[in-house]
Design goal:
By secondary structure, the protein is of the alpha/beta class. It contains 20 helices and 16 strands. The chain is globular, with a radius of gyration of 24 Å.
Amino acid sequence: MTHKDRDQLSAEARQALTDLLARPEPLKPRDRIAIPPQEMPAQAPGQRVTNMSEVALGYTAEQARVESMRCLQCPSAPCVAGCPVGINIPAFLAAAADGNFQRAVEIIRASSLLPAVCGRVCPQEEQCQLECTVGKSLKDLDRAVSIGRVERFVADLEREEGRVEIPHVKPETGKSVAVIGSGPASITVAADVRREGHAVTVFEAFHKPGGVMMYGIPEFRLPKAIVTQEIDVLEAMGVRIRTNFVVGRTRKLKDLLEIDGFDAVFVGTGAGLPRFMGIEGENLVGVFSANEFLTRANLMRAYDREDADTPISRSRVVAVLGGGNVAMDAARTALRLGAGQVHLVYRRTEQEMPARIEEVRHAREEGVTFHLLQNASRILGNDHGCVTAMECLRYQLGEPDDSGRRRPLEIPGSEFVMPVDTVIVAIGNDSNPLIRQTTPGIDVNRWGNIVTNEKQETSMPRVFAGGDIVLGAATVILAMGQGRQAAAAINRMLSEADTQEGDSA
């Protein structure tokens, strides 16, 4: 679907936008604040649960311009401080407001390699939009300028019109860098290092590159064609990508440096180890980690029962345990896979849910039933080892815990049984353990995350790390921010090594 197909505006709304865009005089701050936020066109709930196509359809050109006009162009630009990669947000919004969408996306790309991705999946409401002066002035953060939606529009338009340019690559330096993993942090490192003329090889364990963007985020939130096109840009820059290559098994990390001769290594293997609850019945047939469920649906197209090599059996009644974005993704995917009922079970209230407000709203619209202040205590099965029900407990909230959220406390004697045939556990992930298990000498913290300094340097010389393997499960944009820091440090190290070699000569 192109930007030309997205127009769901009424004639009255279109005329209002036209009148605003035609105003000859410059808008004053009070005029900008008075402009209503532009709603995102989307598939109707009843329609979208029948397909895997993207739910949010994107702004029209008029909406993108009008939403950009809401920016006050604050001299202090607090939104930039809220952006992990420091995009010049007022500048790109000013360009978009003028209708210069190509200039807008060029400003974004100076800091971010993945605007079409970040415009869709980053939690702007907790980052740049949280700091927006418009939202603060109106005392309503929901009315902050929709920075991510405009970012998405200009990036989509650039791609649809074939204007994406391959970044300039400097002359070859003779240096080489290995990048382990191909998620957001790794893509950022690969591009920034390659720009400096260093050879880059990306090692990906799966059969397709893209990391969590490819296997973790559903098609209806992030079309895989967008991720594939970003990978195509890397390859056009000369980055080599090797799939089905498990560092730690196919090759140890130290071997990349000592045998294969790479001058530096970046580890961006993510947080791919699912957590389970440790309750009775988690080994029954019909219990999935959200990682397995989403990977099979997203990467292996298990929803295509006719052609997929590993289809998922059709569930009738699904329970999803958790309250984050991954839980919402799993619940909404289960609906699209044909489940008659999907129940989301969360032991706190909706206010404490870490999921994005928009994702929670979409899940409710699509028919997911929320069971708050409840959690599973054990999973029940039949004589064949298949899930038949889930025993749950009710909870009440106590004092805040280390996360700042109120601690859920069991209510004694509140047990009840919920009939289900499928349980998806979506309570978080731990860092991929393979690197630390096969690399003596690399420091990790008590959660298994690789320890780095502010330059993303690990305890091993010439080895850098970033993204979820360092942060724990985080966001695409935070991973990209660490990737930029790591790439800058790698480029600086390789440049200093060239200088020292020149001096010794």
